[in-house]
Design brief:
The complex is a heterodimer of chains A (497) and B (234). Chain A is mostly helical and 497 residues long. Chain A has a domain of 146 residues. Chain A has 20 helices and six strands. In chain A, strands 1-2 form a two-stranded antiparallel ribbon. The two termini of chain A are 35 Å apart. Chain B has two domains: 155 residues, 3-Layer(aba) Sandwich (Rossmann fold), CATH 3.40.50.300; 65 residues, no CATH class. Chain B is globular, with a radius of gyration of 17 Å. In chain B, the strands form two sheets. Chain B has a six-stranded mixed beta sheet with strand order 6-7-8-3-9-10, with helices on both faces. In chain B, strands 2-1-4-5 form a four-stranded antiparallel beta sheet, with helices on one face. At the A-B interface, helix 12 and helix 13 of A face helix 2 and helix 3 of B. Bound molecules: adenosine-5'-triphosphate (ATP) and magnesium ion (MG). Magnesium ion binds next to helix 1 of chain B.
C-alpha cells in the first residue's frame, strides 16, 4: 500500500482551519495556528517518530495558515463591504510569532502525549490547554477580535452537548427534544430573578434549582417511556421538545375556572354559576408570551459584577463550569454507573445477566442529561438576559445532536471539539464567510447586473446563513456515511479508565 | 439444587420449549445436548431470567426464580457464560471480570474470586490490561467463563464453551470444566460436541425440538445407540 504523506484527519484540519483563516484574517492567525498546532500534535502517533512528524506537519500547517491570512489581509480586506480589521498593527513579526507558536504547540502536544509517564503527560497537556484558555480572552480583547460572545455562547452549548452525550453516547438513547430541558432551565432563572414576578433569588442558588427542575421533568418524561422498546423515546422527546416552548408561549393570559361549576353552568346554561379560581379580575401573565422576559438577573462573585458587554468574567465563569462538568462526567464514567453504561451499550442481555438494571441505568442517564441541559439553560438565560419561546425551537435540538455526532458519540474531547466547531460556525464563521462572499460577488457579478431586484435576489440566494440548517444536516449525513465514530472516536477514551 | 419443571417458553407465537424438566444436583456436571435449533440456548436464557416462561417453574434450592427480575437472578446464585461469549469488547480483561462481580459488594470475596480466576486461567492474568476485543477466540472464551465465575455462582451455566475453537483449545476448555467441578462448582453445560460433553458430565439430557427425549447417566448415554447415531456420528 502506498504511504500517504498526510493523514485524512490532518488534511481535514488544514482545510477547515485554512478556510477559517481565509475568511477571518487579521489577528485571528495567532489563535488559528495554536489550535491547528494542538490538533496536529494530538493526531500524531504518541511516540518519538510522532513528535518529529508533528514538527513537520505542524510547520507546514502553520505556514499555510499564515500564508492564507496574508492573502486575506492583502486582498480580501480590499473588497467592498468588508469589516474593518486593524491590519496595520500586523507586523511581519506577528506572522513569525504565529508560525513559531503553531510549531511549538504541535511539538509540545505530541511530546506530552508521547511522555513515558502517562499521568504526567496528561497533566502537562491540561496545563497547556489551560494556559491558552486563560490568555485567550485578554488577547481577544486587546486586539479587538470580537469573538468573545461567540465563544461564550459556544461554551454554553458545549455544556449542553456534554449532557446529551451522556444520554446518546453513554446510554445510547435518542433524545430529539433536548431543547425542552434547556428551555426549562432558561425559564427557571427568568421566573426567579427578573421583574416578571419581582423575584431576586441568588443566581448561585437558581442554577441548581434549574438543574433540579429539568431533572424532574426528565424523570416524569423518561420513567414511563424508557422501559418501552424501540423508538418511542425519540418520538416522545420530539413531541416534548415542541410542546414546551409552545406552553411557555401560551402562558401569558391564564384564567382558570373551577371545573365542576363550569360543567353545571354549561349543562343548565347559566354562565353566572361558574366559579373562577385563578386570574379572575385580570388574566395572569406568567411567561409574557412571545415578548419574552427581560432583564434577567446576573451573578455576582467576589465583588465582580457580571454585565452585558463585559465578557471576561463570563468567559471565566463558564470555562470553570465546563471544566467542572468534564471532571464530573469523567468521574461518573469510571464509576459503577459508568461501567454499567458501557456494558449496556455493548450488550444489554449480557449486562442484565451481570446484574445491571437496564431501565434504571438508562433512566439515570436520561435524567443526568436533562439536568445538564437545564443547568446550561440557566446560564444562557442569565448571560443573554432575555428569554423568549423563539430561543428554543427544534433546530437547537438538532444542532446539539450534531455537535455530539460530529465530535464523536461518547467521547468527551470529541464532543467539546464538535460543540465549539459547530456553534462557532453558527455564530461567527458563517457570517464572516457571508461577508467575504458578499464582497467577492459585489466585486465580480453584481457590477455587471444592472437591475436592483436582480441584485437583491442574488444577494439572498447566496446568503450562507440561510443554509445553516441544511449545512448541519449535511454534516450529520456525511459523518454517518464516512466516519460514524466521529472526529474523536470514543474507543480511544475507553482505555483510559 | 437447580430444578426446572415443565417449562414452556415462546418467542412470540413460536413454541420453543415444550415442557422442559431437568434438575442439577450439588457438585454435578450435567450436560444438555441437542442439534441446532433444539432449544438449548433458549433453556439457559429462560433459567437466567432473560426470557420468561409462559408456564412452569424454575427453583434454586427451593426458591422460585420465574418471578425474580432478570438483573437480580445473578444475586440468587446463577451465572452464565453465554453463547457467542458476549464479552464486553471495549473494556479491559480486568474490567470484564469486575463486571462479573457487578452485583456483589463484598470486596474481600471479590478479590478472592479474582485470584481464583487467575489461577484457573493464567492467560487472563498476563493480559489484565488488554482490551477484551483484541483477545483470541480461546482467550475470549476463558474470559467469558472467568467473568461468570466472578459472581461466585452456586450453579454455573455454560453455553457451548467449545464453539469455534481449535481442537487443542477444546480439550483445554474441557479440562478446565473438569477442574472447576473438582473444586466444587456445580455446572450445567450445553454442548454441540456431545462426545466431549458426555465424557466430563455425570448426567445428561438430550433435547430435540423443544422436548427432552433421552436422559440418564452420561456414561450410559455414550453407549446408547440412539445417541451414537444422532449425536456422536460414529
Ligand atoms: N429471538 C428469537 N426469535 C424467534 N425465534 C427464536 C429466537 N431465538 C431462537 N429462536 C428459535 O428457537 C428455537 C431454539 O433456538 P435456540 O437458540 O435455543 O437453539 P439451540 O439449541 O441453542 O441451537 P444452537 O445449537 O444452534 O445454538 C430455534 O428454532 C430458533 O429459531
Ligand atoms: Mg445455542
Amino acid at each position: 500500500m502506498k504511504q500517504k504523506i498526510l493523514a485524512n484527519a490532518e488534511i481535514a484540519a488544514i482545510v477547515l482551519i485554512g478556510f477559517i483563516a481565509l475568511i477571518t484574517g487579521g489577528w485571528s492567525v495567532l489563535i488559528l495556528t495554536v489550535v491547528a498546532g494542538a490538533l496536529v500534535g494530538a493526531a500524531a502517533p504518541p511516540n518519538r517518530a510522532g513528535v518529529l512528524r508533528a514538527l513537520i506537519v505542524g510547520a507546514l500547517t502553520a505556514l499555510i495558515i499564515v500564508a492564507v491570512t496574508f492573502l486575506h489581509n492583502a486582498y480580501i480586506t480590499q473588497l467592498p463591504k468588508q469589516d474593518a480589521i486593524p491590519v496595520g498593527a500586523l507586523q511581519p513579526t506577528t506572522y513569525g510569532l504565529a508560525l513559531l507558536l503553531g510549531i511549538v504547540v504541535a511539538v509540545l502536544v505530541a511530546a506530552l502525549r508521547a511522555h513515558p509517564n502517562k499521568q504526567r503527560g496528561r497533566t502537562g497537556l491540561l496545563i497547556l490547554v489551560l494556559f491558552f484558555a486563560v490568555i485567550f480572552p485578554f488577547f481577544e480583547q486587546s486586539v479587538q477580535l470580537f469573538w468573545a460572545n461567540a465563544v461564550i455562547v459556544s461554551m454554553i452549548f458545549t455544556l449542553q452537548a456534554l449532557g446529551l452525550n451522556i444520554v446518546a453516547g453513554y446510554a445510547g438513547l435518542l433524545d430529539l427534544g433536548y431543547v425542552a430541558f434547556f428551555a426549562i432551565g432558561g425559564y427557571t432563572i427568568a421566573f426567579l430573578n427578573s421583574p416578571q414576578f419581582n423575584l431576586n433569588v441568588s443566581f448561585w442558588l437558581i442554577i441548581w434549582i434549574a438543574a433540579a427542575a429539568a431533572a424532574l421533568f426528565g424523570f416524569i418524561l423518561g420513567a414511563p417511556v424508557i422501559p418501552l422498546r424501540g423508538d418511542y423515546l425519540a418520538i416522545v422527546t420530539l413531541g416534548f421538545g415542541e410542546i414546551v416552548p409552545i406552553v411557555f408561549k401560551n402562558l401569558e393570559a391564564v384564567k382558570i375556572h373551577e371545573p365542576v361549576t363550569a360543567i353545571f353552568a354549561a349543562l343548565f346554561n347559566k354562565p353566572e354559576w361558574v366559579r373562577c379560581l385563578v386570574g379572575c379580575t385580570e388574566p395572569v401573565n406568567i411567561t409574557n408570551g412571545t415578548q419574552g422576559i427581560t432583564p434577567i438577573g446576573r451573578p455576582e462573585l467576589f465583588g465582580v459584577k457580571f454585565m452585558t458587554g463585559q465578557y471576561i468574567p463570563w468567559y471565566f465563569l463558564i470555562l470553570a463550569m465546563l471544566l467542572l462538568s468534564v471532571f464530573f462526567i469523567s468521574r461518573l464514567r469510571s464509576s459503577r454507573i459508568g461501567r454499567a453504561w458501557v456494558a449496556m451499550r455493548e450488550d444489554e442481555l449480557a449486562a442484565t445477566s451481570m446484574g445491571v438494571n437496564i431501565v434504571r441505568t438508562k433512566l439515570t442517564a436520561f435524567i443526568l442529561g436533562a439536568m445538564f441541559s437545564g443547568f446550561a439553560g440557566a446560564f444562557y438565560g442569565s448571560y443573554v438576559s432575555f428569554i423568549s419561546p423563539d430561543a428554543f425551537d427544534f433546530s437547537i435540538s438538532v444542532i446539539v445532536l450534531c455537535m455530539v455526532i460530529l465530535g464523536g458519540t461518547g467521547s468527551i474531547t470529541g464532543v467539546i471539539l464538535g460543540g465549539l466547531i459547530i456553534k462557532m460556525s453558527d455564530l461567527l464563521f458563517l457570517d464572516k464567510f457571508q461577508t467575504v462572499l458578499g464582497g467577492v460577488l459585489q466585486a465580480t457579478i453584481f457590477q455587471s447586473v444592472k437591475s436592483q431586484a436582480m441584485t437583491n435576489f442574488l444577494e439572498s440566494l447566496f446568503n450562507a446563513s440561510q443554509y445553516k440548517l441544511l449545512l448541519f444536516g449535511l454534516i450529520l449525513v456525511l459523518m454517518m456515511r464516512f466516519r460514524p465514530q466521529g472526529l474523536v472516536p470514543s474507543a480511544s477514551e475507553d482505555a483510559i479508565t | 439444587m437447580l430444578q426446572v419443571k415443565d417449562v414452556h417458553t415462546y418467542y412470540g407465537n413460536i413454541h420453543a420449549l415444550k415442557g422442559i424438566s431437568l434438575n442439577v444436583n450439588q457438585g454435578e456436571v450435567v450436560t444438555l445436548i441437542g442439534s441446532n435449533g433444539a432449544g438449548k440456548t433458549t433453556t439457559l436464557r429462560t433459567i437466567q431470567g432473560l426470557l420468561r416462561p409462559r408456564t412452569g417453574s424454575i427453583t434454586l434450592n427451593g426458591e422460585e426464580l420465574t418471578q425474580v427480575p432478570a438483573h437480580l437472578i445473578t444475586t440468587k446464585g446463577l451465572s452464565q457464560s453465554p453463547e457467542g461469549r458476549l464479552i464486553f469488547t471495549r473494556m479491559t480483561v480486568l474490567e470484564n471480570l469486575e463486571m462479573g462481580a457487578f452485583a456483589r459488594s463484598d470486596k474481600d470475596g471479590i478479590q478472592r474470586d479474582l485470584e481464583r480466576v487467575f489461577t484457573t486461567f493464567p492467560r487472563l492474568k498476563e493480559r489484565v490490561k488488554q482490551r477484551a476485543g483484541t483477545l483470541s477466540g480461546g482467550e475470549q472464551q476463558m474470559l467469558a467463563m472467568g467473568r461468570a465465575l466472578m459472581s461466585n455462582p452456586k450453579v454455573l451455566l455454560l453455553d457451548e464453551p467449545s464453539m469455534g475453537l481449535a481442537p487443542i483449545l477444546v480439550e483445554q476448555i474441557f479440562d478446565i470444566i473438569r477442574e472447576l467441578n473438582q473444586q466444587g462448582t456445580t455446572i450445567l453445560l450445553v454442548e454441540q460436541n456431545a462426545q466431549a460433553a458426555l465424557q466430563v458430565a455425570h448426567r445428561a439430557y438430550v433435547l430435540e425440538t423443544g422436548k427432552i427425549t433421552i436422559s440418564g447417566d452420561a456414561k450410559e448415554l455414550l453407549e446408547d445407540p440412539r445417541v451414537i447415531e444422532a449425536y456422536l456420528g460414529l
